[in-house]
């Protein structure tokens, strides 16, 4: 009852600060922890989702709360001091939220429709795109993500690497379509230092139907 | 990577732990207030590294003082910051993940039990 009252008050007054500030929450995985085996072990999925992604969500909420308070106090310096935590934890939340959805049990057939045409046009073939994404992702120094992204201004697909949890769109302007987490926590328990094996295998569990949907939204929204 | 790990293996010892003595201990007390303060500060800085990197106790030859620094990825301390490396803590996930998983803080807390202060003092 209390939450409903607060919500009505918040919605009815745009001039006042919202009484209830919504917090980010950990999205559920669209499948069980073991769904992506043998490519990604259940153990990795559990720790990756329940510990790593959950921590980004919690720390994002903390950073946003501090940012709100710093703004209320009128402290520009404190707001700026929080930008690193926002980028890191916000990026971590964004990246992982996308990641769970572009993977699925046993993968799907290769890209179709508009996405397939764009891949052929911009890379020559699906296999060439995969080779480039594998090389880019494997070659990242330290922690980061390899991305297939869409450049809306140029109407072109691109492959880039982002460091740490830097979110693709906020950092480069590209719309994220398919990303590969190459932080060691994403593969180490199973593949140890053999990052190339993990990166090559991930295409066996790629959910191209979801990627086609993301491409469609990026193109037409 | 080669520089960092070559130092790291010597910074650690199965007979390590405890606290430093002599000139290094005195400088730690002068620059950090106490060994505990130094310990806390180095641990906090190291655990907070975003992504892969190393936490370092380094010596500033210009100011003749001790410094704590964080380096990203495999950036080597001296070429990057000018500080002489004394003690480094690798916080790339590969350094602890199989045993500690995501709990980097426990790994950094426990590593003090195997710090080879003889080696660190020698470097100092």
TrEMBL record, chain A:
<dbReference type="Pfam" id="PF02777">
    <property type="entry name" value="Sod_Fe_C"/>
</dbReference>
<comment type="function">
    <text>Destroys superoxide anion radicals which are normally produced within the cells and which are toxic to biological systems.</text>
</comment>
<feature type="binding site">
    <location>
        <position position="181"/>
    </location>
    <ligand>
        <name>Mn(2+)</name>
    </ligand>
</feature>
<feature type="binding site">
    <location>
        <position position="185"/>
    </location>
    <ligand>
        <name>Mn(2+)</name>
    </ligand>
</feature>
<comment type="similarity">
    <text>Belongs to the iron/manganese superoxide dismutase family.</text>
</comment>
<dbReference type="InterPro" id="IPR001189">
    <property type="entry name" value="Mn/Fe_SOD"/>
</dbReference>
<dbReference type="InterPro" id="IPR036314">
    <property type="entry name" value="SOD_C_sf"/>
</dbReference>
<comment type="function">
    <text>Destroys radicals which are normally produced within the cells and which are toxic to biological systems.</text>
</comment>
<dbReference type="InterPro" id="IPR050265">
    <property type="entry name" value="Fe/Mn_Superoxide_Dismutase"/>
</dbReference>
<dbReference type="GO" id="GO:0030145">
    <property type="term" value="F:manganese ion binding"/>
</dbReference>
<feature type="domain" description="Manganese/iron superoxide dismutase N-terminal">
    <location>
        <begin position="23"/>
        <end position="103"/>
    </location>
</feature>
<dbReference type="GO" id="GO:0004784">
    <property type="term" value="F:superoxide dismutase activity"/>
</dbReference>
<dbReference type="GO" id="GO:0005739">
    <property type="term" value="C:mitochondrion"/>
</dbReference>
<dbReference type="InterPro" id="IPR019833">
    <property type="entry name" value="Mn/Fe_SOD_BS"/>
</dbReference>
<keyword id="KW-0560">Oxidoreductase</keyword>
<keyword id="KW-0464">Manganese</keyword>
<dbReference type="Pfam" id="PF00081">
    <property type="entry name" value="Sod_Fe_N"/>
</dbReference>
<keyword id="KW-0479">Metal-binding</keyword>
<dbReference type="InterPro" id="IPR019832">
    <property type="entry name" value="Mn/Fe_SOD_C"/>
</dbReference>
<feature type="binding site">
    <location>
        <position position="48"/>
    </location>
    <ligand>
        <name>Mn(2+)</name>
    </ligand>
</feature>
<dbReference type="InterPro" id="IPR036324">
    <property type="entry name" value="Mn/Fe_SOD_N_sf"/>
</dbReference>
<dbReference type="InterPro" id="IPR019831">
    <property type="entry name" value="Mn/Fe_SOD_N"/>
</dbReference>
TrEMBL record, chain B:
<comment type="similarity">
    <text>Belongs to the iron/manganese superoxide dismutase family.</text>
</comment>
<dbReference type="GO" id="GO:0004784">
    <property type="term" value="F:superoxide dismutase activity"/>
</dbReference>
<dbReference type="GO" id="GO:0030145">
    <property type="term" value="F:manganese ion binding"/>
</dbReference>
<feature type="domain" description="Manganese/iron superoxide dismutase C-terminal">
    <location>
        <begin position="20"/>
        <end position="123"/>
    </location>
</feature>
<dbReference type="GO" id="GO:0005739">
    <property type="term" value="C:mitochondrion"/>
</dbReference>
<comment type="subunit">
    <text>Homotetramer.</text>
</comment>
<protein>
    <recommendedName>
        <fullName>superoxide dismutase</fullName>
        <ecNumber>1.15.1.1</ecNumber>
    </recommendedName>
</protein>
<dbReference type="InterPro" id="IPR019833">
    <property type="entry name" value="Mn/Fe_SOD_BS"/>
</dbReference>
<dbReference type="InterPro" id="IPR036314">
    <property type="entry name" value="SOD_C_sf"/>
</dbReference>
<dbReference type="InterPro" id="IPR050265">
    <property type="entry name" value="Fe/Mn_Superoxide_Dismutase"/>
</dbReference>
<keyword id="KW-0479">Metal-binding</keyword>
<dbReference type="InterPro" id="IPR019832">
    <property type="entry name" value="Mn/Fe_SOD_C"/>
</dbReference>
<keyword id="KW-0560">Oxidoreductase</keyword>
<dbReference type="Pfam" id="PF02777">
    <property type="entry name" value="Sod_Fe_C"/>
</dbReference>
<dbReference type="InterPro" id="IPR001189">
    <property type="entry name" value="Mn/Fe_SOD"/>
</dbReference>
């Amino acid at each position: 009852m209390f939450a409903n009252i607060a919500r009505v008050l918040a919605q009815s007054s745009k001039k006042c600060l919202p009484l209830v500030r919504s917090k980010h929450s950990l999205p559920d995985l669209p499948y069980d922890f073991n769904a992506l085996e043998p490519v990604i072990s259940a153990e990795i999925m559990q720790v990756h989702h329940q510990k790593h992604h959950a921590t980004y969500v919690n720390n994002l909420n903390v950073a946003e709360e501090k940012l709100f308070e710093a703004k209320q106090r009128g402290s520009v310096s404190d707001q700026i001091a929080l930008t690193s935590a926002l980028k890191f934890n916000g990026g971590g939340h964004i990246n992982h939220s996308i990641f769970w959805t572009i993977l699925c049990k046993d993968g799907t057939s290769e890209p179709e429709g508009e996405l397939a045409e764009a891949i052929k046009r911009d890379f020559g073939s699906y296999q060439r795109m995969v080779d480039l994404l594998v090389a880019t992702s494997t070659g990242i120094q330290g922690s980061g993500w390899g991305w297939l992204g869409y450049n809306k201004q140029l109407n072109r697909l691109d492959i880039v690497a982002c460091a740490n949890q830097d979110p693709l769109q906020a950092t480069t302007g590209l719309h994220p379509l398919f990303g590969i987490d190459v932080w060691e926590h994403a593969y180490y328990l199973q593949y140890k230092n053999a990052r190339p094996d993990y990166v090559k295998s991930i295409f066996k569990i790629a959910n191209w139907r979801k990627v086609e949907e993301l491409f469609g939204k990026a193109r037409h929204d | 990577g080669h520089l960092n790990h070559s130092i790291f293996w010597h910074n650690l010892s199965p007979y390590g732990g405890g606290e430093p003595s002599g000139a290094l201990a005195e400088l730690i007390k002068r620059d950090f207030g106490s060994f505990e303060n130094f310990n806390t500060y180095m641990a906090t800085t190291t655990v907070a590294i975003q992504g892969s990197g190393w936490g370092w106790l380094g010596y500033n030859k210009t100011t003749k003082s001790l410094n704590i620094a964080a380096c990203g990825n495999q950036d080597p301390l001296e070429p990057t910051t000018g500080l002489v490396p004394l003690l480094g803590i690798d916080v790339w996930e590969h350094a602890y993940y199989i045993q500690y998983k995501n709990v980097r803080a426990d790994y950094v807390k426990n590593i003090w039990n195997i710090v080879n202060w003889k080696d660190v003092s020698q470097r100092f």
